[in-house]
Amino acid sequence: MLIRSDYQLVDYTVALLRKFGTQEMLVGLPWRVLAALLPPGAGWPRDSVLLMKKVARLTPQVVIFDETMFLISDKNHRRELGRKCAEWPYTTSVKLAALCEDGSEQ
Hints:
The protein contains 4 helices and 3 strands. It is mainly alpha-helical and 106 residues long. The chain has one domain. A hairpin with a 2-residue loop joins strand 2 (62-65) and strand 3. It starts with 5 loop residues before the first helix and ends with a helix. The mean pLDDT is 80. This is ABC transporter ATP-binding protein. It comes from Gongylonema pulchrum.
């Protein structure tokens, strides 16, 4: 499939999220493959994280929360988003504490 427009990119994103589930921004293998296979010169970011952020700006069907991409129209994604929201302050404070222990963030 050759992706030539933002509309096609959004359609492909919806299909990818339905097939593979929620996608972690830094480790989502399908997204890294997609970013690498996009045609050069199309104007889309080659970095998977930047590509995910661009798609999230293009459509209200997709949301990024706590470095994870969700498809709002899918009930499993909404359930996972609700679970992640319920745990959010805890996971964020754990990540910040880990950064402070490493000395990389004060």
